[in-house]
Amino acid sequence: MESDIATPVKGRPREFCVDKALAEALHVFWAKGYDGASMADLTEAMGITKPSLYAAFGNKEALFHKTLDLYETEKLEYTRAALDQPTARKVAEYYLHGALMTHAGTTDPKGCMGILSSLACSPEAESIKADVLGRRASSQRALVERFERAKAEGDLPAHVDAQGLTSLLYALLQGISVQAGAGATMDELERLVDTSLALWPSR
Amino acid sequence: MESDIATPVKGRPREFCVDKALAEALHVFWAKGYDGASMADLTEAMGITKPSLYAAFGNKEALFHKTLDLYETEKLEYTRAALDQPTARKVAEYYLHGALMTHAGTTDPKGCMGILSSLACSPEAESIKADVLGRRASSQRALVERFERAKAEGDLPAHVDAQGLTSLLYALLQGISVQAGAGATMDELERLVDTSLALWPSR
DNA sequence: ATATATTTGTAACGGTCGGTATAAAACGCC
DNA sequence: GGCGTTTTATACCGACCGTTACAAATATAT
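Above: the input entities. Below: the structure tokens describing the complete assembly.
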């Protein structure tokens, strides 16, 4: 993930780090959503002017897609790591605790950037919605397959609907994000997770 | 709920029905959220001009609070009716099926107006967020008490955390709304509900 | 008829939106 | 030092935002 290790071409060198600026932009989109984040919000947080932003990232929409890449790679890593857990229950545990840390932690904005930006959708931001929904669908497909495998391996009862269980787990993640964004305390959300896991189908 | 049964005062009578206009405004806010709904969107759907809207409803914010009243009394009736069900399981069933009809049905916009308007929050719309969150908290409190009663009546195991179970059920509602707004099919959401009820703590 | 009160449509207000034209500044290269 | 190239900062663009002044229109009351 290196960049700017040396000035490759001639011309005036840029005075800011693209990756740092992108990380700042991510925080703004995460906290305010695509529509809610203004160019003024972005440039102020990124510490650059608007022409610099446009030269480096294209426009607001292109910048959003790049921050969404960063968000998925860095902050949603837990959704991929969860799939490697040995049992369906441990997959769910990893998912739920990962959501707790990522969407209700103290370092980053509360809530889920995907939900925020896919819901508040101005007509012109259809491409943003499509991007978020596409990534979510692919992530959900992987979880369905993981639960199917769990049924074949016997650590999930055969009568369980893998598709339904996936939608259920994602609904819990979305609920956690919504409630975290609404100001729920960490204690409340931990009890939500504990109660969910207490109901999880046992092998 | 009567209104405009007779012209009470002098002056030119208004040429539109306040209740009809409010119902149209509700649909706009429901579909687009508070920030996403522009005055042009509202006046077009309501069939009135901007000065008429301001004279009848105050301003955009006051109009929103009035539509939120209408939303809660008409569309969220199921959350109150659910509490009258005889057992905790039937409460949950009523809640989940109500959410399915209300937030994923075909007559009204998909999703939940409260979630949409509380998440996408411009800085000046803090009053909107506070209104939505206050109503949600009071509704959640009633559900906690209902589950406490269920534990006392014996149709919910004593080891269950009523607060956690309430957060869990609300998370499911929020997940259903998010997924409905994202274009999930009715079949998918029904399987989500069925899977959730299959895991529900049995007496 | 006149006066008063309210709603109507038009047209505009200042402010913010995303996006850009322009020219000065800072570099490598010759 | 000049030249080409890229980034910088300022200042501005047209479009839309929520909101309102204003005057014509329509009602009741005198």
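Note for the figure: Chain A has a mean pLDDT of 94.
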